[in-house]
Design a protein that fits this description.
Blueprint lengths: L8 H25 L3 H28 L27 H23 L4 H30 L8 H4 L2
Helix pairs in contact: 1-2, 1-3, 2-4, 3-4
Length: 162
Amino acid sequence: MTSLAREPIKKLLGYAMRAEIDSDRIYTEMSNRVKNPLLVQKFRILAFEEQRHKTVLEHLFQSMYPGDTPEVPEKVNSKLLPAMIIGPTSDLVDILRQAMEAEKSAQAFYLGLAKRVELGKKKILEYLSKVERSHYLMLRSEYTMARQFEDYGEKDIDKVVT
């Protein structure tokens, strides 16, 4: 397994940006795929927050490496941050499970990275870690609902339970 302690911080920030870009894309795709209006909005919120995280990371990078351009890889290093794999036939329960794992990994990633930077930057990364934790909790709640109601993603919630 790749270690956070061995990778250059510049490179880790690039991986983090890629993960945020990918998460934004997936949550946006999911907001267009599901029909449940509450779930649509939750996916949109997650996508928006992932966009913001990328911006925060870009600012953090510039504060640490003024004038440099971050190298954002084409795909995330799955040994550090697992990629979500969603196909046309992926079901909502599986997608939510993958998203939960991705958010949990991001939480740990940011906490680990926070240990390697100075205090002011540490606070930013700890903040990102806490937000990723909140994403995990939101997704866990949706995962529970999706497991209990087979067509949860396809209907308005009042039509699911009536």
